[in-house]
Design goal:
It holds the Pfam family Ig_NUP210_3rd. This is PO210 protein. By secondary structure, the protein is mainly β. Helices cover about 5% and strands about 40% of the residues. The chain contains one helix and 15 strands. The strands form five sheets. A four-stranded antiparallel beta sheet has the order 5-7-10-9, with no helix packed on it. Strands 6-12-11-8 form a four-stranded mixed beta sheet, with no helix packed on it. Strands 13-14-15 form a three-stranded antiparallel beta sheet, with no helix packed on it. Strand 3 and strand 4 form a beta hairpin. It is elongated, with a radius of gyration of 24 Å.
């Protein structure tokens, strides 16, 4: 149950017609531009033990793009990017499910020697890949919307900047999140294994490039 259903409602996720469930969906209901808290509680019908937690509903103050790397290699698997949102106190929101974002690839004015291009990077749909995203992302893609998680793939070498903006009008003053990505050639050294040399001996290395699944 929720102590303040007008702030955060709770819906059991179990068999139809049953009030008891081990899982539940908590949804933010408040539309007020202020920080509000509701107490979510669950009771074990056998032992009477009560579990509780606070559900804090607040406005987003800042967004950031989170990535495992800033470098992509041509011919590599797509890179998954995700948005983290923070409140005014720096706390991270638990979920951004359902929020619509506008992701765009823009030119990078600070390429620092890299070829700057807005066509070096391509945004992919999860529906076009073998990746399995959260179910709400797939539902948003079906209606041509973008959520807090996307895939990107390198098209050609260079540097590109990716920008993400919240579409909700209430967040028009929240600065877009940006991330700079570098797309590099997939270069290999042959031989690829460790070499142990005697003093005075040498070994010849060859540089090879992976292109369209073939080494050239």
């Amino acid at each position: 149950s929720s102590s303040r259903p007008e702030v955060a409602s709770i819906e059991p996720l179990g068999q139809d017609g049953l009030r008891c469930s081990q899982r539940a969906l908590v949804q933010a209901r408040s539309s007020q531009p202020t920080r509000l808290t509701a107490i979510i509680s669950a009771e074990d019908t056998l032992t009477g033990q009560v579990l509780r937690c606070d559900a804090i509903v607040d406005l987003i103050h800042d967004i950031q793009v989170v990535s495992t790397t800033r470098e992509l290699y041509l011919e590599d698997a797509p890179l998954e990017l995700k948005i983290h949102a923070l409140d005014s106190e720096g706390n991270t929101f638990s979920t951004l499910a359902g929020l619509v974002f506008d992701w765009t690839v823009v030119k990078d004015p600070e390429a620092n020697g890299f070829s700057d291009s807005d066509d070096a990077l391509r945004i992919l749909k999860f529906l076009e890949s073998t990746y399995i995203p959260p179910s709400y992302i797939l539902e948003m893609e079906k209606v041509a919307k973008q959520g807090d998680t996307i895939l990107v793939s390198g098209v050609r070498t260079g540097s590109s900047k990716l920008k993400a903006r919240l579409q909700e009008s209430i967040y028009k003053d929240v600065h877009p999140a940006e991330v700079r990505l570098f797309i590099l050639e997939n270069i290999l050294l042959n031989p690829v294994y460790d070499i142990y040399l005697l003093v005075g001996t040498s070994v010849q290395y060859r540089v090879q490039k992976l292109s369209q699944g073939k080494i050239t």
